[in-house]
Amino acid sequence: MGFRSKILISKSINMNNYDKSMSLSNPHPPFVDSQQKLAATLGSIGLLMMVLAFAGYSYSNVGWMLTLSCLMLSTGIIWYALRAYYHKIPGIKNDGVWFSSIAARGVLGWISGIVITGFYILLYWYPNMLGQSSGADAANTGLIALFDPLSFLIKGQAASQWFVYGTLYTMAILLFGFKFILKYRHNKYQIVRTISVMFFQLGFAFLLPEFFQAMNEPYYNFANMWPLNYYFFDDYNMNTYTGGTNFGLIMILWGLAMVFIISPILTYLYGKRWYCSWVCGCGGLAETAGDSFRHLSDKSTKAWKIERWMIHGVLLFSFLMTAAVLSTYFNNNSGQWVSKNLFLVIMIAVISFIIGFVLWRKHDIAKSGKNIPMFIIGSVGIVGLLVLFSHVMGYFVLSAGSLRSVYGFLIGSAFSGVVGVGFYPLMGSRVWCRFGCPMAAILGLQQKFFSRFRITTNGGQCISCGNCSTYCEMGIDVRAYAQKGQNIVRASCVGCGVCSAVCPRGVLKLENGSSDIHTKTDLMRTIHISEDEVKILS
Amino acid sequence: MHIVIIGNGISGVTAARWVRKLSEHKITIISSETEYFYSRTALMYIYMGHMRQQDTQPYEPWFWAKNRIELLHKHVDSVAFEAKELSFSDGSSLAFDKLIIATGSKSNKFGWPGQDLNGVGGLYHIQDLERMNKYSHGLQKAVIVGGGLIGIEMAEMFNSRKIPVTMLVREESYWNNVLPTEESAMINKHIKKHHIDLRLGVNLQEITSDDNGNANGIIIKETGEKIDCGFVGLTAGVSPNIQFLKDSGLETGRGILVDKFLETNIKDVYAIGDCAEQRSPMSGRRGVEAIWYTGRMMGETVAYNVCDKAVSYDPGIWFNSAKFLDIEYQVYGNIQAKPPENHGALYWQHQTENKSIRIVYDVENMEVLGFNLMGIRYRHEVCEKWIKERTPIESVLKNLSLANFDPEFYEDYETELVFLYNSIHGANLKLEKKRKWDFVRKFLSQKV
Fold first, then answer.
1. Could you tell me if A98 lies within 8 Å of chain B, comparing CB atoms?
2. Beta-carbon separation of B330 and A501 below 8 A
């Protein structure tokens, strides 16, 4: 949240600055009125109180100061949103988006990108600078101490950097979710979907796990699942579930059911949107606080190529890492019914099968062997499999633990956190979901091959205007399909429905259908010249 | 064979793409407007800040080289049809084997005094957008002359930058030469709700200017009222952009006259899109139809013909769409502003929101003729199939859910429409709930 309010501050002081590099259209009409400036100022003061705490200023009455700070922040954002949308006639509200310094990668966009990135670096690797206590007996200071009263209220313990982060994160989704609903209040799909992400963030991702901890139960978010939740199978995590009451066992069973039963069924029925834009916290932040940046995603085919091999590379990495971690539960000596070697051999077979299937289907669809990303992933996969195999043979190239640490650092922290949110103002709100999330990758593969979901195109009504592609946060060139009268079936589509909303001609619709599941990408004709009408002139 | 296309709009570019699909001919597209094809219908979004200019380009720059389509950013001055050669304004020339003319339209000017002053112009080319943009800085007031689709777009554009707008519309109600009375009235109300000063039933007398040749106001013919403004938008329709071909031997009427194969009176010379005029248009259709969709269809058709595969131009069942500020509009089939006697209509309008459905049918045999939608999306293929197969209105109503294309969770109004029909005609129709894609697909694949 901290980051988004920074945006508000900067917006209020810098509306006269527009990108002068644009050859066309660089106006500066009053997109922000005086009330919005006041609202932004109010929110900024709330944020400033947190910044002061971070800078080392200690308040005498922390509880009141936290309340006041959060109240001012919230009021500022709500007031700003009301002024921005409430009095306006419901409809698409994208006026001036590309003239805004903050939303169009101007100076303010870069500043906020750097500030948010900085915040995440402190959060992940230097929490002591945020005031995280260094030992069990030491007290929190700074920003984290500011949140102690709330943490005590909810679970009777002092705050940690993750509590502070969770609180700010949840506030961001709720407050900017409110803004998003106001902005799209003519569109019922957007309203329902946004209420859903707000609900799952507040209840499942924030409050419930904190309550569990208050009850001395393990921290658990029922809406998070492997492989996004990459530490699910770690022994420290498993130990917390198995060490306590039966409740922990339920958590393990639920986690497995999510991966193997619930997710495949829901993805078959509705596509990956059930998770990515209805439930997931990363998606929730992208859809709400990140909404102002959705148009910044790169739509080029080059970016799509990079995306495919990055995200599938991460997926493969997470598979290999998980297999290695799981293998530590097995050994070759005691009388386990599955030996470590057998387990590894099974994992190698499963991963090989998935890689083989995807390569085969890709080949089948593209009818060409020129699929370089898939080739690279295939190669990486083979190398990875060899690594696993080396475990079987007994030479350890890399231990499961170190593989896990590398993954945690590179993917879990650096990619999903620092880059994933820090780069919102530079590369759009779904950088992580598009290029790095293994969960999105696996759901995407299923969406493409085994799901009823697609976006249908309405006959020949497309005017190639480009609003759909521009506002696609996943960088899908929606127009490329729509103007050909082709359905949009893309692994990356999170089903946010904004392309359909911004289309001025009513061309796009998110739909599910089982009868044409394997031909849903077939090209439909936008004009009607049938081959038998064509006569060859002699 | 070298196929040269003048104009890189939707018609010319579609022609080039299809020629490439059908042949290995050399293709050159010439445009003096822009280097790359962009979507003309998206001009307004650039001005409003929804998109950048590059976002309105449907193909990335590498597309052209990959498909071996050469782009020439030059201006054609004249065509020597006998010699099969084009002359450019820079003195160079280019030979062709077959020529496709797709030069589009230009904004109408009806000889109003002051129509060529600075700060006066239409909205068709990217240069028009540049002019609007240039005059928008510090602009206190804009006046738009002409209702229609471009007029309301221009009003929305100025509105987005908080520039007060007055719209002078000749008709008694917005676009009522195309829209039926109720729909037109809905748009009137909506325009005013956006604080656009809509003046109906008035004409432009003249545009006044200051000493530097800049427009500074307009005078209304009927009332003599003077309105001060720094920009005057001329949006009273468009006409074919063909002056450079006058006296070249090419037969022209309003546009370049073409036969059903889109060929002109000169062999190997074709014309498509806004600039073409059909010698014998299909019944119920106009000779010049300056819309995106017909341009695209002509582009595809002409490609077959230049590749020696004779295909006559058949635009099929009429369809169109637009967006009036916040209200989406779709039309399928034969909807008349002043319907003939055999046209009956079932018209439903939402009590509070800007949504309406009009289904027109033939009162003699009850066959459905057309659909007119405001604020509601209907499926193109489904409506087209019903119209093409002369489906009786009652059968359409029972299956109306098949047509609904609104996003999920949207309220459906099919029940209300059926109820309305039942109460008017004393019928007892029951709506079959079949909104899902699987049903639609099944319906579309049924042969009559």
1. yes
2. no
pLDDT given for residue B261 in this prediction = 97
Which residues in chain A touch residue B130, judged by CB atoms under 8 angstroms apart?
Answer: 24
Q: Are the C-beta atoms of A223 and A258 separated by less than 8 Å?
A: no
Say which residues have a Cβ less than 8 Å from residue B103's Cβ, sequence separation at least 6.
B6, B7, B240, B241, B242, B244, B273, B274, B275
For B170, residues 6+ apart whose C-beta sits below 8 A from its C-beta are B146, B147, B201, B202, B203, B236
Calculate the alpha carbon distances from A271 to A205, A268, A448, B193 in Å. 22, 6, 9, 39
Q: Determine contact: A196 vs chain B, CB below 8 A.
A: no
Which domains, ranges and CATH numbers included, belong to chain B?
Answer: 2-106+239-306 (3.50.50.60), 120-236 (3.50.50.60), 319-445 (3.30.390.30)
Partner-chain contact B39 A516, CB within 8 Å: no
What pairing do the DSSP bridges indicate for beta strands B269-271 and B142-145?
Answer: unpaired
Which chain B positions have a beta carbon within 8 Å of A297's beta carbon? none
CA A230 to chain B, closest CA, distance in angstroms equals: 33
Nearest CA-CA distance, residue B149 and chain A, Å: 13
Distance (Å) from the alpha carbon of B319 to chain A's nearest alpha carbon: 8
pLDDT digits (tens, 9 = 90+) for A253-307: 898 999 999 999 999 999 999 999 999 999 999 999 999 999 999 999 999 999 9
Dihedral sign computed on CA atoms, order A199, A200, A201, A202: positive
Domain range summary for chain A, segments of one domain joined by +: 2-216, 221-453
Mean pLDDT across B298-313: 96
Question: Structure pTM?
Answer: 0.92
Within 8 A by CB and 6+ apart from A52, the residues are none
pLDDT, residue A394, reads 58
Instruction: Assign 3-class secondary structure to chain B.
Output: CEEEEECCCHHHHHHHHHHHHHCCCEEEEECCCCCCCCCHHHHHHHHCCCCCHHHHCCCCCHHHHHCCEEEECCCEEEEECCCCEEEECCCCEEECCEEEECCCEEECCCCCCCCCCECEECCCCHHHHHHHHHHHCCCCCEEEECCHHHHHHHHHHHHHCCCCEEEEECCCCCCCCCCCHHHHHHHHHHHHHCCCEEEECCCEEEEEECCCCEEEEEEECCCCCEEECCEEEECCCEEECCHHHCCCCCCECCCEEECCCCECCCCCEEECHHHEEECCCCCCCCCCCCCHHHHHHHHHHHHHHHCCEECCCCCCCCEEEEEECCEEEEEEECCCCCCCCCEEEEEEECCCCCCEEEEEEECCCCEEEEEEEECCCECHHHHHHHHHCCCEHHHHHHCHHHHECCCCCCCCCHHHHHHHHHHHHCCCCCCCCCCCHHHHHHHHHCCC
In terms of Cβ atoms closer than 10 Å to its own Cβ (0-12, 13-18, 19+), residue B83 is exposed
Using CA atoms, how far apart are residues B239 and B124, in angstroms rounded to an integer? 11
Residues of A in contact with B133 (CB under 8 A): 24-27
A1 within 8 A of A73, measured Cβ to Cβ: yes
CA angle A358, A363, A367 (to 5 degrees): 160
Q: Which residues of B touch A479 (CB under 8 A)?
A: 58
ipTM of the complex: 0.96
Q: Are strands B105-107 and B120-121 parallel, antiparallel or unpaired?
A: unpaired
Of B41, B42, B50, the CB nearest to A97: B50
The residue among B6, B35, B58 whose CA lies nearest residue B272 is B6
Which residues is A5 bridged to in the sheet? Answer: none
Tell me how far apart the terminal alpha carbons of chain B are, to the nearest angstrom: 43
Q: pLDDT (tens digit, 9 = 90+) per residue, A57-90?
A: 888 889 999 999 999 999 999 999 999 999 999 9
Length of chain A: 538
